[in-house]
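[step 3/7] fold_predict: job queued, chain A
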Amino acid sequence: MATTATRTTAKKTTTRKKTATRTNEWDWEDFRPDWANEGIERISNELEKWNDKLQSRSEKFRQESQKRIEKGVAQVQDELRKVPAIKRAEELRTEIENRVEKNIDAGVDRVYARLKLARLDEVKKLERKIAQLNKKLRALEKQWAA
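[step 4/7] structure written:
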């Protein structure tokens, strides 16, 4: 009796192994009827269309939102520029910029003066004068040669 039980158990495990390998070889699409495959394909196509529509709508919505936001920001900036305190702040900013620029220029001039160096604009003026003098000198040399 023990041998019969062992044989039955062995047969069951081999049968299970065989069915397990068979199920791996079988595909659900092999059993599905053609009309079901067509229906699934149609549903899949519709889902793709909806997905495309949603993506285009979301892109359009994003662009429109961006335009609205930019327009709103521009309106707020315009309104702020009309506020007297903002106008005064901008005037002070330009005034301070001018003062700082003048102070920097004056400081640079002092540094050049102490180092006894000429500034670039002074060098250019001198180069122009030298070029003019060279032209006059050439003209005089031509007159003497003649």
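[step 5/7] annotate
Residues 34-82 form the longest helix (49 residues).
The mean pLDDT is 83.
exit 0
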